[in-house]
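Known limitations

Structure tokens in this collection are predictions and should be treated as such. Users comparing against experimental data should check residue numbering before alignment. To illustrate the layout, the record for Asparagine--tRNA ligase is reproduced below. The input appears on top and the generated tokens appear beneath it.
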Amino acid sequence: MKTSTVAELLSKDIKLHDIEVKGWVRTFRANRFIALNDGSTIHNIQCVVDFEKTEEATLKRITTGAAVHIKGELVESQGKGQQVEIQVKSIVILGDSDPETYPIQPKKHSFEFLRENAHLRTRTSTFSAVMRLRSSLSFAIHKYFNENGFYYMHTPIVTGSDAEGAGEMFRVSTLDSKNPPLNEDGSVNYKEDFFGKETNLTVSGQLEAETYAMSLGKVYTFGPTFRAENSNTSRHLAEFWMIEPEVAFMDLAGNMDLAEDFLKSILNYVLEHNKDDLEFLEARLLDEEKVKPQADRSEMSLIEKLKFVADNHFKRVSYTEAIDILKNSKPNKKKKFKYIIEEWGADLQSEHERFLVEKHFKCPVILFDYPANIKAFYMRLNEDGKTVRAMDILFPGIGEMVGGSQREERLEVLREKMKALDIDEDELWWYLDLRKYGTAVHSGFGLGFERLVMFVTGMGNIRDVIPYPRTPQNAEF
Ligand code: 4AD
Ligand code: MG
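Generated tokens:
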């Protein structure tokens, strides 16, 4: 006899003898009805215990959180709310759960509380749905690239390069902290970090991905990246996962097409394969919306929003056009932007991005051709000499979902740029080699995976879409 999953059993509508299932008790009502979940689906299966034939001692051990092994029959359910249920013939308690101390009670817990119990929070419906979606999205991403001729490439986690030039890196050190090598002025010589070389945790696999794109053609990375920025927002993590495709002979327009097609395909995948979890999360959000004033409620439900993005063109707008729109706009009748854009060249703040996406265009927006001086050194300089072929994709409720660009493929222009920004050529000699030997137009982008999971699940805080969030306050577990 094979153990079935709850998902398998719920999909059956015939009477089945001798089934077996293992899982965790969500609730036990009236000494008779177990709601059992094993993680295979958002739904619990009802298991009906014959309390007259079951020992008192066993009944007492059927508590919320306990792991159980049930044998019985799958029958049509007498009660409402489910098609089938299990008539229990035998139940073995595999692992007890003390109802006095078990943190996950059968009631609504706050997300803050559940973050403190991150090791148990996937025992709740919300977090199990979110993490199943996270897994499904990962699969859909690999599937998309695999079906479109991309190679999956692993880029280093420990690296000597600062891909973004933003200096937000975690140092990796083999130095003896009690007795570090010193500079002449007495300060610690970090140049000695990694057996004689300065190293950090990667902020992006892009530069290494570029090297492989320039031989394998189409590659992508999907791995952890690290930013030592001390930002406590609901959209930033110190450790997050990034997907970075990089393609040879592709320009910025091709990059936009790729990103849009990719995102839509991923959304369609989960709409098709994760219906139950999405419906559960949608209902959760609708419940939350009910207590909000009418004006603050969202116009679309979660699934409607995903379908809308999957079915409609992303609006493509240049930075310069966006600035004109913003200069002539007020976020609402009374309020001005907190941060007013005085002139061309300023970086957009999240209030501006959200205005463009949520109020003005009401759809995802691809902003492109940013001023060179607010973007990274590797971006392709436009013929105007002041903008670069950068693109950011902004999503409703999220802000920046994707950042990418066409890369500077001209050796001399890149050298000039690095000189101007004081980036040492010796550190990126291999990167410059790509421009010396068989250089070509190429482009790519980075998608912040957790931001995608937030969008798909409707979760409001990035800490709730990654198993163990790393933020300035949180590095437990
Ligand atoms: O815009 P970013 O910094 O771009 C890069 O790193 C490029 N090298 C990517 C490339 O062209 N290959 O980061 C890309 C995306 C952002 O759009 C955002 O979604 C996400 O990564 N991201 C973060 N997500 C969570 N927490 C953080 N601290 C993040 N920083 C960036
Ligand atoms: Mg960015």
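For this record: Residues 125-147 form the longest helix (23 residues). The chain has a mean pLDDT of 93. Please report discrepancies through the issue tracker.
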